[in-house]
Amino acid sequence: MCLFVEAVYYIGWLCHFFKIQHYTLKGTVILIMNVLPSLP
């Protein structure tokens, strides 16, 4: 039972982490796309 709860927490943490990574990557791409046209 304890292992099951730990596994759920671990999977939840991984999902949370990758979601943050995904948004950070997306934000970086959007930032680059916004900055590139304004460069000389």
Structure description:
The protein is an all-alpha fold and 40 residues long. The protein has one domain. 85% of the residues lie in helices and 0% in strands. The chain starts with a helix and ends in a 5-residue tail after the last helix. The mean pLDDT is 86.
Task: Give the tags.
40 residues; mainly alpha; 1 helix; rod-shaped
Helix content: over 70%
What's the β-strand tally?
A: 0
Mean pLDDT over all positions: 86
- Which structural class matches the secondary elements? mainly alpha
Distance between the termini: 61 Å
Q: What would you report as the Rg, rounded to the nearest angstrom?
A: 18 Å
Low-confidence stretches: none
**Largest sheet: number of strands, sense, barrel closure:** none
Global geometry: rod-shaped
Count of discrete domains: 1
In N-to-C order, the SSE pattern is H
Portion in beta strands: under 5%
Short characterization:
The chain is built from one helix and no strands. It has one helix at residues 2-35.
Write the layout of secondary structure elements.
Elements: H1 2-35
